[in-house]
């Protein structure tokens, strides 16, 4: 779709589609741009049909395919695409789209119901239609709002005048807690009076009921006809199914509170309210406590449609599934869906968790590939670089870990601030893994000028020196090393005064608790430089330097990077605030 003549419309239409395509490619997350492109493609040739040009049809299909690859949970667009294919190319093409759609959003009651309805109208071989209904039932049959699907299934069997199959469907449905459970029971009860006893219960249960009825008659000294025996057996069976109804009613009522709070049961690219996320958490807690594996999975799958862009829910689903025996592939599938379809790569935590899962399952090459894929898009993801280095350390040793860091430091696509973090990780490995304090200190010292504007670099070097073991004989030397780091940070870096003050407090605390006879002189000097009036503090010196052109100030974007902190995703996990109001940010 590169040039205007290939779209199959007028010059004006082709120009507009080219512009919209460019907009989409510039920002693939922009949902409105995609919608505009789809509408423009649908209106080519005054509205596409089977007589439209091959170029116009190819343009439409290409746009829909790319759109639904990006947003596979939009069941309404799958339905529109299938309808278009039906009008353009016939039922076979439409069925292919339905299959793709149902594979992409396996728990969509609406899409499966539409597919089954389509199959009813276009296929005249009953067993093929029933096979589709049964496939659908495995995916959506337990959904609390699955009544449109069951209604459609019953409608089909009614058309076929298959009363035995209608009864079998109702016999299944009356056990399912769902929105319209009561009317299915009423219809089941009416039909039960007309069906043979053998269809109502198993042969063993029928023998038991007959024995009970005949035993009661003997106890009362009555002689009952076969018709009377059957009537009494039906009464007992009716009572049994009434207890089933009461149980279904109870289970439905338990879930009603949570279901009533679900305001958006479908996928959308906009944020949910905090209250909606809180309700999903409570609902999942409830279903997990109930302990029915199938129902828990059904609820999680529903949740992952509505909450697809919240990695919190993907983490929760994967952790829960990992707690179930023998579900390794299911866990992998959850991570795959989260990482490849829904959670933006700008939040790499779920991908790193996936990498650790693969490493644990002896798929180290896949774990490496996941790290590489993240860094292809986010070359400055310090968290990912450090994670990869430590993956190599665990699997191949210290040299392999250092090689990862060396490659990132040498990369032209990696920023100076990320390289500073790589150097600190390199030094930390030399210190804590190799056990060489001197080599670690040398790594810091060698690059102090190059990375002077990195808060992380100075923080890590400062922490390194502060954590070195010492004694009364070594304390003076130790103080010199700590002071050297602090002094270089103050004189070489362009960090803001606030950052320097933060590190200054740490140094002052060190001087107070571990300094010798002369320590308080340094303490007061630092106190004046950090917290004194501008005329005697570092703030005034920094101001003079900037005005004289000696030390150009960092621009706002660079300062944000220079003074940023680096966290691992698991360090940011926190219990959600159940009382939070407003929209819940994806980040």
Automatic annotation (TrEMBL):
<dbReference type="InterPro" id="IPR059164">
    <property type="entry name" value="HAT_PRP39_C"/>
</dbReference>
<dbReference type="InterPro" id="IPR011990">
    <property type="entry name" value="TPR-like_helical_dom_sf"/>
</dbReference>
<protein>
    <submittedName>
        <fullName>Pre-mRNA-processing factor 39</fullName>
    </submittedName>
</protein>
<keyword id="KW-0677">Repeat</keyword>
<dbReference type="Pfam" id="PF23241">
    <property type="entry name" value="HAT_PRP39_C"/>
</dbReference>
<keyword id="KW-0539">Nucleus</keyword>
<dbReference type="InterPro" id="IPR003107">
    <property type="entry name" value="HAT"/>
</dbReference>
<comment type="similarity">
    <text>Belongs to the PRP39 family.</text>
</comment>
<keyword id="KW-0508">mRNA splicing</keyword>
<keyword id="KW-0507">mRNA processing</keyword>
<dbReference type="Pfam" id="PF23240">
    <property type="entry name" value="HAT_PRP39_N"/>
</dbReference>
């Amino acid at each position: 779709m590169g040039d205007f003549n290939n779209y199959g419309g007028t010059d004006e239409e082709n120009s507009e589609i080219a512009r919209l395509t460019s907009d989409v490619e510039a920002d693939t997350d922009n949902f409105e741009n995609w919608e505009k492109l789809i509408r423009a493609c649908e209106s080519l040739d005054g509205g596409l049909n089977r007589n439209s040009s091959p170029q116009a049809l190819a343009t439409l299909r290409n746009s829909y395919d790319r759109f639904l690859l990006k947003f596979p949970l939009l069941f309404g667009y799958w339905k529109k695409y299938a309808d278009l294919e039906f009008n353009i190319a016939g039922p076979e093409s439409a069925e292919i789209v339905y299959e793709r759609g149902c594979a992409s959003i396996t728990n969509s009651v609406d899409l499966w119901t539409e597919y089954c309805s389509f199959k009813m109208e276009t296929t005249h071989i009953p067993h093929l239609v029933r096979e589709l209904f049964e496939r659908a039932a495995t995916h959506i049959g337990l959904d609390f709002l699955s009544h449109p699907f069951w209604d459609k299934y019953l409608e089909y069997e009614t058309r076929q005048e298959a009363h035995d199959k209608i009864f079998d469907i109702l016999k299944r449905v009356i056990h399912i807690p769902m929105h319209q459970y009561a009317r299915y029971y009423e219809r089941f009860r009416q039909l039960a009076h007309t069906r043979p006893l053998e269809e109502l219960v198993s042969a063993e249960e029928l023998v038991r009921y007959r024995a009970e009825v005949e035993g009661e008659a003997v106890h009362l000294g009555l002689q009952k006809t076969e018709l009377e025996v059957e009537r009494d057996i039906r009464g007992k069976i009716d009572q049994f199914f009434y207890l089933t109804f009461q149980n279904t009613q109870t289970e439905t009522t338990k879930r009603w509170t949570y279901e009533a709070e679900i305001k958006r049961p479908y996928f959308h690219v906009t944020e949910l309210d905090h209250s909606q996320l809180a309700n999903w958490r409570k609902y999942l807690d409830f279903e997990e406590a109930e302990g029915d594996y199938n129902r828990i999975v059904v609820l999680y799958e529903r949740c992952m449609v509505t909450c697809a862009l919240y990695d919190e829910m993907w983490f929760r689903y994967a952790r829960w599934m990992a707690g179930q025996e023998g579900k390794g592939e299911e866990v992998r599938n959850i991570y795959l869906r989260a990482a490849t379809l829904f959670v933006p790569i700008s939040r790499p935590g779920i991908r790193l968790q996936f990498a650790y899962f693969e490493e644990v399952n002896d798929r180290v090459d896949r774990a490496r590939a996941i790290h590489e894929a993240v860094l292809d898009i986010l070359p400055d993801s310090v968290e990912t670089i450090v994670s990869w280095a430590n993956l190599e350390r665990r699997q191949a040793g210290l040299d392999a870990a250092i090689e990862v860091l060396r490659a990132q430091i040498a990369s032209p696509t990696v920023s100076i601030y990320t390289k500073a973090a790589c150097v600190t990780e390199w030094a930390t490995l030399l210190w804590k893994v190799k056990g060489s304090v001197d080599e670690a200190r040398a790594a810091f010292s060698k690059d102090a000028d190059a990375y002077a504007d990195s808060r992380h670099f100075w923080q890590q070097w400062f922490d390194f020196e502060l954590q070195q073991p010492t004694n009364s004989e070594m304390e003076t030397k130790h103080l010199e090393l700590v002071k050297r780091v602090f002094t270089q940070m103050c004189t070489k870096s362009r960090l803001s005064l606030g950052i320097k003050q933060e590190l200054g407090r740490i140094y002052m605390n060190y001087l107070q608790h571990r300094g010798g006879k002369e320590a308080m002189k340094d303490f007061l000097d630092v106190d004046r430089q950090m917290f004194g009036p501008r005329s005697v503090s570092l703030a005034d010196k920094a101001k003079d330097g900037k005005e004289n052109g000696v030390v150009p100030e960092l621009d706002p974007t660079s300062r944000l990077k220079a003074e940023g902190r680096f966290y691992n995703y698991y360090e940011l996990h926190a219990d959600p605030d159940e009382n939070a109001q407003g929209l819940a940010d994806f980040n």
